[in-house]
Write a structure and sequence with these properties.
This protein is of the alpha/beta class. The protein contains 9 helices and 7 strands, in the order ααβαβαβαβαβαααββ.
Amino acid sequence: MGTGEAWRDREVATRFATERAAIVPESRAQIDVLLHILRQREQPTARVVDLGSGDAVLLDAVLSAFPDASGLAMDYAETMRELANARLARFGARAAVAPADLRTSDWRATARAADVIISGFAIHHLPDPRKRALYGEIFATLSPGGTFLNLEHVASATPVVGAIHDEAMIAFRAGPEGDLAATRTAYHARPDKADNILAPVEQQCLWLRDLGFADVDVHWKWFELALFGGRKPCS
């Protein structure tokens, strides 16, 4: 399949959304750190865009924490947009869902200006030159003082560290009573694996700084999972 194409498969998308807590370690901590950073913003959080939103679990958390905010969930997979619509229905007019293919800059026409742009486990499907170009588009889309946060799979420093991460993920998914061997086989054979194009978090932070972002940092990390981002200066 092509870049990110596995997520157009209804079974793949639905399984991830329904099993997230069982297959993604520290899911609650990720959201808690993201919300902590947004609560420290000096400007109001009025408009939020969630790029590659999946079922909009991140946007759901942000809109719940900021009752005056509105949000737009953007994803290219029809199944994910359906799941996002169902999740965000309780917010009424405060939330909307729209298609977006991050492989092009067309998403900007729908997103318009935003105070906050978030993304979760989506941008790593893009080739590195497109990742950097997207970060530039995000910078241009943010209002002055706007915040960008990316919760992402990132490349491990070495193959040895990568193998350590794989074993940690396998142990988490298997659980204390699970079959490690069977889980290891399933983990390495998962249908979305070929769509992963990981870049080191240090490199991605350098891109953000070069593009003009301030206060760039890695706010949370667990092996190859990282939350990082920066702020668009007010002037």
